[in-house]
Amino acid sequence: MKQPEKITYKIARMALHRFEEPCISGDRGSGTIFFSGCNLRCAFCQNHEISALGKGLEVDEDKLIYGMQKLEAEGAHNINLVTPTMHVNKLIHTLQRAKKAVKVPIVWNSSGYETVANLKKLEGLVDVYLPDFKYSDDSLAFEYSHAKNYFEIACAAVREMRRQQPADVFEDGMMQKGVIVRHLVLPNAVDNARGVFEEIAKIDKSMYVSVMGQYFPTAQVAGHPVLGRRLEEGEYDRAIRAFFHAGLTNGFSQELDSATEEYVPSFDLSLLEEFLELQKGARTRD
Ligand code: SF4
Known about the structure:
- It is a single chain.
- Helices cover 34% and strands 18% of the residues.
- It is built from 10 helices and 10 strands.
- The chain has helices at 22-25, 48-51, 61-73, 88-101, 116-120, 138-145, 150-164, 190-203, 233-245, 269-276, and strands at 8-17, 30-35, 57-60, 79-82, 106-109, 128-129, 169-171, 174-184, 208-212, 251-252.
- Helix 3 (61-73) packs across helix 4, helix 7 packs parallel to helix 8 (190-203) and helix 8 packs parallel to helix 9 (233-245).
- The structure holds iron/sulfur cluster.
């Protein structure tokens, strides 16, 4: 009889992370697991070394589950799967095991560029959806992220997430179930932000939206005529006004001085090796 294939992932980081939204990070941190690779190719990506260059270590399913349990034991308020979309089929099996192995909520922290068919496979396995909704302007989506039909795909994805998690449930201020949509305001793109907020309001005016002002130009876009500069305070203020104008009421904002590389997590693979107690010789590295 054919043996089932061993499930493995390429992982760049597993650690408590304190810089998510307050109801995700809490006072102890979110148990983040950063998958290598991404189904988008954003020119401005702050995690370029893992999303585009694929930095990471091969970790099998048993070790991943062990890592989730360790994060929970260290106090993680949740298990936060970062850029998991490309692994959805494998994750169905892994999350079925994870739901028995850990008690904290499972968070799906994605680009928002994913199909409804794939999201349906996650029903009952994901407690909190934390998608990006980057663009209402498809020309920007194509120019900056090489993504076709981003708007239509992200709208359908967020609708499906809301269908699966129709109510936002909190315990001691921490989200246990629900949806938070993130929008990173880009330079010279307040209209793009407005379109995103208006669309989210059509899906559900009570949706939690995280309006992120932490954009900073990475080395990959240094010198770009638009992406090569930081967000101006006036732009962020206009985006916040657009949020309220769309009829949204629940959300999170950021201080613009959080727009610094200090908040980008370290992808030092020796930390991951240490955390998972990976055996020498039983690993691959890019
Ligand atoms: S979706 Fe996020 S992780 Fe993926 S390339 Fe874009 S910015 Fe990077």
